[in-house]
Amino acid sequence: MQTLFSLIFVLLFFITGNVCYLSISPKGPVSVEALVGTNVTLSVSHAGVPQPEVMWFEGSLLVAKWTVSNSSLSGVASGVFKPELNGSLTFMNVSRRYNGTYTVEMNNIGEEKVSATFYLFVYDIIMNVFLHTDPGDAIEGEVRFTLYYSTMQGEAKEVRWFFNGLQLRNGSHYSISGKNLIINQPSRNDTGHYTVLLTNPFSSETQHRNITVLYGPDMPVLKVSPTKAVFVSGESLFLSCQAEGEPPPSTTWFFNGKSIATSSTGTVHLTNVKTSQSGIYTCVMMNTRTEATLQRNVTIIVYESPSGEPLCSVQAVNGGAALQFLCLWPGGAPEAQVSFPGLSVNASGYGNYSMTINDIQSLNGREIICTAEHPLIQTQCSVIPRGPVDFLPVILTSMSQDEQTMVVIHCSAEATPQALVHWIKDGNRLQTGPKYQISTNTTQLFISDFNVTTDLDTYTCTAINPLSNKTVDTTLLGPQISNSSVFLSNDQTEVTLTWDVPLTSVITGFDIQMKGPELSSPSQPKLSFASDFRTIQSKPASARTTTVSGLNPEFTYYFRIIPKAGRTAGEQSEQHRIGPAAGLSGAAIAGIAAGIPCALLILLIVLAFIYCGRRDRIPRYPVSRAVEKAVISQSTLNPHRLLRARLKPPPAYRHQQPERSAPLPSVNSCVRMATTV
């Protein structure tokens, strides 16, 4: 019976041409490549069932469903897909979004499903390839250096990297992964030309980049020329330093930690060397890109006797309870031996020597001598420790742009060692804060935002050093003028005012005020009168004189000086009047000028009388009344009585034997001679 059914089945198979089982198979490759924007079809064929149900999946997501010979779609994204009558699926205007794995399933009711799988790769045209680096610079010795590419459009199916034209392979030194080329532990040998080649089924693109691996500096090579162990003062020498690196490293020379002039080739030329140039010279090589540095030292020794003279000084130590004496005589080869024999017989040192003394009261005003001995020279220096001496404070004022007044009290007492200053107000010691600031050396007190109403007070500065102290009280005064004066020019068109202020007066400036006609100028020839004082000049606090021009000699002017502290005006100076009624008149001045020659004439006459009276060897008779009258009239012409000596009347007569060699001049001839002069 079983054989009969088999024969019937075979017969039916030959009659119908197939067995009614559903089957499916891809038409063409299952890996499909497509260009963005084109239409692509995943083609299948089926057999055994005329109208099976078709379902397409992207991964596990259903994207299309229909029945063969029925073009209506159900499911998702129906606008993207076009169903084919044979169950194939066409993508319209495909984009890279649809890259993926697609599975088609067909089934017939009551039968098992059949399926086929496709792989869709959508590519775009590769454009605008760029090469990047991470980090920015390739540095020798780093862990890795990465080259990677980016594109503005398109993806590569195949990526190949080349170095100087040779294709690179994965290995211990190069690692190629995705878009990256990784160079492990780059070295200077990796410097060169790198190329990336990107290809896909529809395009290819190449990009290049030169990579320079930075390295160095290598160990510097030092040279000293001429090669000598010791140099003598006055000689010259060259120092050079070289090292390999990329970029070529820069060279800087240091001497005892301080940079010295270095040529562009990295050499230093030392001429006329001295012992002060003995020491360690350091060559520092630096890669300016990587900032990597290497350095080497060389010691230069110069022999010379110490230069100059030893220097003595003293300073306070141990909180001001002791004095430290210092004797400095550097240089020399060997160093000089220095000591303080007046402080200790056995103690000494070399070059820079110090000694601390705790019992200091007996040292005030005592000269302390340091002896300095060198094989070539012996000398000494001394220092006299003293307590502070009397001093006078100095007051300075200034005004900021926001019109705040700053007052500075400077207390500096001459003392050895230098004295520290304590500042006291109202019995309280002042400290640095918003209102008061004390300078680093404590000799200056800064009073910020000075207010004339509240800050005028007595400030005490005490200068202290370990030997003694001095205290000075400073009472700040408001803006004042102690005295003033005025001087008029010869042509009476210009006046100079001078003034003084108290030493402790707080002043930031002066207003020069005038009452009277306006000052004349070429641009304003006409005069206008003002009955009140007005400010015509403003002078700084340091000013003590000023000049006002443009006065008219025919008018009267009044001047005064107003001292100011910030916006506060102080007491005005006395008023100074300038005008026709002030001082000597023009006639008086002319009289004085005319009287001076007359006074000189009378003085010559008197001298002539004295001379002739002593030389007269013949009888002398009284001077005639006419001459006496002439002399008296000359005397009355002098308005200022320049001749104040009295003339004694001559005696009635006197007999004297004349010399025979030559007759002496008579009194009358002397008078005539003086009158002629």
Key traits:
single chain, 677 residues, mainly beta, Immunoglobulin-like, 6-stranded mixed beta sheet, 5-stranded antiparallel beta sheet, 53 strands, disordered C terminus
What is the helix content?
Answer: 10-25%
Based on CA inertia axes, which overall geometry fits?
elongated
Overall pLDDT score: 82
CATH structural architecture of the largest domain: Sandwich
User: Which percent band covers the strand fraction?
Assistant: 35-45%
CATH 4th-level superfamily of the largest domain:
Immunoglobulins
Q: How many strands in all?
A: 53
User: Strand count, sense and closure of the main sheet?
Assistant: 6 strands, mixed
Could you tell me the CATH topology label of the largest domain.
Answer: Immunoglobulin-like
- CATH level 1 name of the largest domain: Mainly Beta
Q: From the helix content, strand content and strand pairing, which structural class follows?
A: mainly beta
The N- to C-terminal Cα distance equals 191 Å
What Rg do the Cα atoms give? 57 Å
What does this 3D model show about the protein?
The structure is a single chain. With 677 residues, the chain is mostly beta strands. It is built from 5 helices and 53 strands. Helix 3 runs antiparallel to helix 5 (667-676). InterPro entries: FN3_dom, FN3_sf, Ig-like_dom, Ig-like_dom_sf, Ig-like_fold, Ig_I-set, Ig_sub, Ig_sub2.
Layout of strands and helices, then pairs:
Layout: H1 2-16, E1 23-26, E2 31-35, E3 40-42, E4 44-47, E5 53-58, E6 61-67, E7 70-74, E8 81-83, E9 89-91, E10 100-107, E11 114-123, E12 127-134, E13 138-139, E14 144-153, E15 158-163, E16 166-167, E17 174-177, E18 180-184, E19 192-200, E20 203-211, E21 213-214, E22 221-225, E23 231-232, E24 237-242, E25 250-255, E26 258-260, E27 267-270, E28 279-286, E29 293-300, E30 302-303, E31 311-317, E32 322-328, E33 337-339, E34 349-350, E35 352-357, E36 368-373, E37 378-383, E38 394-399, E39 405-410, E40 420-425, E41 428-429, E42 436-438, E43 444-447, H2 452-455, E44 458-465, E45 468-475, E46 483-488, E47 494-500, E48 509-517, E49 529-540, E50 545-549, E51 557-565, E52 568-569, E53 576-578, H3 586-615, H4 625-636, H5 667-676
Parallel strand pairs: 2-11, 13-21, 23-30
Antiparallel strand pairs: 1-4, 3-9, 5-6, 5-10, 6-7, 8-9, 10-11, 12-14, 14-18, 15-16, 15-19, 17-18, 19-20, 22-24, 24-27, 25-26, 25-28, 28-29, 31-32, 32-35, 33-34, 33-36, 36-37, 38-39, 39-43, 40-41, 40-44, 42-43, 44-45, 46-47, 47-50, 48-49, 48-51, 51-52, 51-53
Helix pairs in contact: 3-5
